Amino acid sequence: RAENKQISLLQIKGIGEVKAITLIASIELGKRLYTKSIIKKDIKLTNVESVYSLFKDYFNDLKQEQFIVIYLDTKKKLIDYKILFIGTIDQSTVHPREIFKNAYLMSASFIICIHNHPSGVSNPSNEDVVLTSKLYEISKLMLIPLLDHLIIGNNEYYSFLENNSLK
Questions:
Q1: pLDDT range class, residue 35, cuts 50, 70, 90
Q2: How far apart (Å, rounded) are the C-alpha atoms in residues 165 and 160?
Q3: What is the pTM of this model?
Q4: C-alpha angle 115-132-55 in degrees, rounded to nearest 5
Q5: Which of 9, 28, 80, 143 is the most exposed place for a label (fewest CB within 10 A)?
Q6: What value does the mean pLDDT of the chain take?
Q7: CB atoms closer than 10 angstroms to residue 103
Q8: Distance between CA atoms of 100 and 144, rounded to whole angstroms?
Q9: Would the CA dihedral through 157, 39, 45, 50 be positive or negative?
Q10: CA-CA distances (angstroms) from residue 142 to 4, 145, 166?
Q11: If pLDDT is split at 50, 70 and 90, which confidence band does 93 have?
């Protein structure tokens, strides 16, 4: 879609390719800053819908997979979230060490993982299932429960918790 935006900007008198790219980058930066500002700390995330509603706009139009971990306190209030891994159009390498390192540094009591599928289809891949199973087992050992893993598609999501696949 960025290519389409660039082409339409080039049709405006006085806007060359460099200016068009600069404008698109500025719009993207503004979108990210806006999203960061609307995600407030201390918001209580007690169900899948509240997590999806809070983060769905962040994933709009992303061309690469991004893996975010949400860190919650004992009352399931948002402490913080981190974009830990950015991948390609169809995969992201995720390492549990980074997920749980941040959980300990933030004194998190719970975590929720969330990532997107740029294809728009939210069904989990085999890799997603294996990763979630590993993270679930590690979370039990670390005593920081994994509450859910959401996959965001185009106006849809898949929740491992809701689908009884969190194991």
A1: low
A2: 5
A3: 0.75
A4: 25
A5: 143
A6: 85
A7: 23
A8: 8
A9: negative
A10: 46, 8, 16
A11: confident
